[in-house]
Structures are given as structure tokens and as C-alpha cells.
Amino acid sequence: MTPFIRRVAAAAFLATSAAALAQAPQPTVIHSAGNPILSDGSYYSADPAPIVVRDTLYILAGRDEAAPNVNNFVMNEWQLFAAKNVASKTWRHYPAILRPETVFAWSKPGHAYAGQIIQGPDKRFYLYAPVQEGKREHTDPFVIGVAVSDSVLGPWKDAHPSGPIVSQSVPEPNKIQNIDPTVWVDADGRVYLYWGTFGRLRGMELEKDMVTPKGKEITVDTLTGFFEAAWLFRRKDTYYMVYADNKAGPDSPCTPANYHACIAYGTAPTPLGPWTYQGVILDPVSSTTSHPGVIEFKKKWYLIYHTADAKGGGHFRRSVAIDTVKWDDSVSPARMLKVQQTHEPQPPAEPSRNLASAALASASNEPIPVQYWIKALNDGIVRPNPLPPDMWGSWTPHNPSSQWIQYEWSKPVTLDGSRIQFWSDHRAGAHEGVAPPAAWHLEYRGGDGWHPVANASGYPTTVGEFVDVKFDPITTRCLRAVFDASGDGQQYAAVAVQEWETLGPKVVSLTSLPKPPSASDPNSGCSAAPATHP
Questions:
Q1: Phi, psi dihedral angles at 101 (to 5 degrees)
Q2: Three-state SS at 73
Q3: 348: region left, alpha or beta (phi > 0 left; psi from -120 to 50 alpha)
Q4: Which of 114, 135, 438, 488 could serve as a FRET partner for 197 with CA atoms 20 to 30 Å apart?
């Protein structure tokens, strides 16, 4: 191309970009106090995908619109956040930049799941979008389409009008759910695409047109705990894949509950592998899902992810957060250090009679079944429609007739009441599933054994609201709630508790309470069996 033609092409590109910007949605300015970036609950944002364009960091995100009591992803559109200086915490918010049905004539409305924008070798911007096909042709309707624009802000048009570039039939037949695309354009202009969920990860090279497969698909099965949300990038001569990992269990470095996910990563010498697992870089967040994007911006590296920490937030009302990534270059390949989650400043906790937050929670059914989470007992969160990790539960194929949960404090506390909220999916008296207990009672550790609390006001088993028990004051380090399971004498239902509060006679500052003891403390004062039923 001659210098003259290059100048003409550049001028045309700038003119087109200026026209595109003139049509772009107008942003609102956010002065963020920290994480999440937008925390007031006016817009929720999920599945972040960062891209740097000149002096600006953009973050593509889906918009969560589920009602507080709806356990389902309601996502109709994508939005953008933009910042020229991350430390300033000043962002521009571009809502509703794109809806699936406005670009892909072959798609259904809604289901604007995790996409990514990347700049192609031709300097245009390509948005890889998981959407649902309009005419159901496959067992799973999710497919991946590609939109293109001269500006990261749009307007967007279909880059492959004949249909999706990935489905259960193209480019190769598969039986997976085809979502969560991640794309990388390497220094030599070669293009790579990965996608997948539910533990299935596939990848392939694309032609420089950004839509045509080049070569065969590969399957990746060497990334420990891979669940979904892959993100591909390069640092120096090493390729990195960060992803949502949900390998769960009591000894897991990732998560004790399989509804949660951590962020882990692997490395490879080439964009198509082979991939080697390297470890966890982000512990589970407040939402059950976790979705990463990693990028360098103005000589700093960042991890962008989502949480449930915004006002009114939840597992289906998530919000984008950003924190710095640090590296250990003393090893090869360079190691990603674990990212510390930060939050916007919070007011001090209100004084309270509830002392549960200062206790270590444990239960008779440890190791806890991986669908539940023991820490939910005293996390202070009660959801209108909880998921299993929002509670402790005892369900197994063979439930025992009795179970207990327990709090242990570092120092003796004085208590005269308790509040507990049960959860169930079966009626009272059922011998299967999760049902309210047939009966229950409280015991405390004192002297050389366990003793029932005295003069308890009663033990209601109502589900879905707090039930209160008052009793004569006790001073103890250990309190148990002991449950007689519902059943028929041969088979028993499980018990589940979303929150358990323990009340002192006076309101106290929670910051004055000692930290909970360690689960590995050999000097536990709560060992031994519970007392006989009163």
C-alpha cells in the first residue's frame, strides 16, 4: 500500500469512527467509592470483559435484571464502563449498547450472556456474543455470533449474517453448551477462540477475518477444576488462561461448596496449549458465579470480576469489580499472585445483641455436603429465595435421625436468646428431601458436659422466617442447636438452616468481640457428645 493510499485509508477510518461516536449512546458519569464499580443498585452488571483502546479501559458487561426473588439469569442487553484512570474511580457508564435481536436477525431476544470485544487485524472491533438461536435447531439453543463495529461503542452489525460461527453443529458437531467465548489476537495477527462451560472447554484458530475456522478444534482437559468463563491473554512469551474453577471439597484450595467458584489459571507456551494448571488467584466471591477478565492498562495489570456486593445484589443481580494483579517474575512462567478483593468503605456494623458473627460454626455432618456452606450460618445474609450454599444443610441419600450445628467463641459469652431460620423443600413430617425438624432444642457447654438451656420459651419449626427462643441467661463458649429429623422411623428428611443468630442480654459493639477461634485449634472447648434430649 502506497503512503498516499495509507493516508486516505486512515482518514476514512477516522471519519467512520467519528460518525460512529456521534451515534454512540451517551454515558453517565460514575464517581465510584470502590468495589463494585457501580454499587447503588441502579444497574447490575456481570461477566466483565475488558479491552484497552488507546488511553481508555473499557469493560463490556451483561446487565442482570432478575427480580430479588428470581433464581434465574435475566439478561437482555450489554453495557460498557470506561475509565482513563482506574485510580481516580471515575467511570463513564454506557447502558444498553447492544441487544442480541438488534444485530443478529437469526437470534432470540434476551440471553445476553458473557461476551468479549476485541480489535481485529483490520482495526475494527469484533464482539463475540453467546446468544440463543431464534429457530430451535439444536438440543441446546446457545450459539456464538460475531458483531462488528468501527468503534468499541458501536453501532454494531452482524459480521457473519448467515448465522452463528459456533453451535452444536458448526464448525464441528458437539454436545456442549456453547457460551463464554474468549478471543485473542496475537502479535503476528493470528486469531484464537476458546469457549465452553460445565467443565467442557474447546478452542480453535480463526482466519484473520475473525469468523472463519482455521484448522481443527481442540479440547482442553488439563485445567484443574475448569467449569466455565475462560479468559485468554498473553504476557511476554507465556499464554495465560484464567477461568472459573469449582472443584469443591473440604480440602479444596478453591471452594468448599460446589455452587461457588474461585478463579484459577493455567499457562501454555502457545495459544493452543498444552495447558498446565498453576493455581488459584481469586477466592470465591459473594455471588455463586465468578467470571474473570485480565488486562494490562497503563503499565498495571488488573483482574476484573463480578460480585453480589451492590445494594440489593444477589446471585442473579451481580456487579463488576476491579482489583490489581501482581506477578512473581522470579519463576518461569511468571506466577500470578493471589488477588486481594477490595470493597468500598462500609459504615461500622450497628451494635447488636447477635453475637454469632464472632463464633466459629461447625456441624455434626462434617465434612459438610458440598452443595451447602457452613459459613452461611452466621454471615448475616438472609435471601428471599436462597440457593444451597446460602445455608447449612444435612441432606445425603441416607439422613440420620438427629443432627446438630454448633457455635464456638474464643472467650465465654452470655446469652439469653436465639433466632433461627429454617429452609425446606418438603412439608413438615416428610421422610425425604429437606423438611422442618420434628423437634429441636438448644444446649450449652458448661462444666464437664452439655446441658439444655433452662426455661426455653419454646422451639417453633416454622419455615421461611426467624423463630425466636428465649431462655435463662447462660455464660458459655459453646452453643448447639440439636435437631430431631422429620421421618417415619425408617427414613428421615434432612434439615437446613439459612441463618442462626445467638442473642446476648445487652446490645454490644461487634468490633469489641474477639475473633472466632480457628477450626484447627486443638484446645477446642466444644468437643464431646450433646446432652440427652430434655
A1: -75, -15
A2: coil
A3: beta
A4: 135
Which tens digits make up the pLDDT trace of 263-308? Answer: 999 999 999 999 999 999 999 999 999 999 999 999 999 999 999 9
Backbone φ and ψ for 10, nearest 5 degrees, come out as -65, -40
Q: Residue 90: beta bridge partners?
A: 31
Q: Output the pTM of the full model.
A: 0.92
- Tens digits of per-residue pLDDT, 473-531? 999 999 999 999 999 999 999 999 999 999 999 999 988 888 999 876 655 668 766 66
Report the alpha-carbon distance of residue 241 to residue 374 in Å, rounded: 31
73-82, 422-431, 446-455: which has the minimum mean pLDDT? 446-455
Joined grid coordinates for residue 144: 456464538
Largest CA distance in the chain: 94
Question: How many whole angstroms separate alpha carbon 421 and alpha carbon 531?
Answer: 23
Instruction: Say if CB 421 and CB 432 are below 8 A apart.
Output: no
Spatial distance between the Cα atoms of 389 and 391, rounded to a whole number of angstroms: 5
Rg (CA), the chain: 26
175 vs 140: CA distance, rounded Å: 8
* 313-367 residue pLDDT tens: 999 999 999 999 999 999 999 999 999 999 999 998 899 999 999 999 999 999 9
Torsion sign (Cα): 335, 34, 44, 61: negative
The residue to which cell 444485530 is assigned: 103
Distance from chain centroid for Cα 416: 37
Phi and psi (nearest 5°) for 189? 85, -5
180, exposed or middle or buried, with CB in 10 Å at 0-12, 13-18, 19+?
A: buried
pLDDT bin (cut points 50, 70, 90) of residue 390 is: very high
Rounded-to-integer distance, Cα 346 and Cα 530, Å: 39
Residues listed for the chain = 534
Q: Is 279 left (phi over 0), alpha (psi -120 to 50) or beta?
A: left
Please give the pLDDT value at position 519. Answer: 75
